[in-house]
Amino acid sequence: MKTKLTVAEALQRARAEEPLQGYQVDFTDHKVEALEAMQLAKAGVEVPEESIYYDDEAIAEDEAFEGEWTPVATDGLAEAEAEAALNVRLQLNPEVKAWLEQQSIPTSQLLEQLLVNFYRTEQRLRKG
Questions:
Q1: What is the pLDDT of residue 105?
Q2: Angle subtended by helix axes 7-15 and 34-42, to nearest 10
Q3: Is 32 helix (H, G, I), strand (E, B) or coil?
């Protein structure tokens, strides 16, 4: 039987880059923000979709997009990601760098998610 962790404990371990294998995170009556869900996912924790909190007010509308958002098929994307690796060196504004560090946002994971979402959006717009 796996040892149970609260969401706060799991986030603390994930931010400290401690392994979370062998633990079960209790998401009962607790929601996490999208960036926290990414941190947990990077540490190997599967976050139930219903446990992810999205603040619609904090999401900027895309003026160039009109219509309904629909899921984009990603078949084979995981295999392609495993085969491809990209090393990036960034020169960040000190204020942005401090913010990333303060928020414990893993830059590589953030960039990966931004690029994947940008790619999916671009593909969707081409089809539309």
A1: 75
A2: 60
A3: strand
The CB-based long-range contact list for 100-106 (8 Å cut-off, 24+ gap) reads 103/35, 104/15, 104/39, 105/35, 105/39, 106/38, 106/39, 106/42
Q: Which tens digit of pLDDT belongs to each residue from 71-104?
A: 666 666 555 655 666 667 778 888 988 888 888 8
Give mean pLDDT, residues 16-43.
86
Closest listed residue to residue 16, CA positions, set 37, 42, 55 = 42
The answer to whether residue 63 scores a pLDDT higher than 70 is no
DSSP string, 13-26: HHHTT---TTEEEE
Contact 7, 30 (CB under 8 A): yes
Question: Is the separation of the CB atoms in 16 and 40 below 8 Å?
Answer: no
| 3-state DSSP of 78-116 | HHHHHHCCCCCCCCCCHHHHHHHHHHCCCHHHHHHHHHH
pLDDT reported for residue 49: 86
pLDDT value, residue 69: 65
Directed axis angle between helix 34-42 and helix 107-127, to 10°?
A: 110
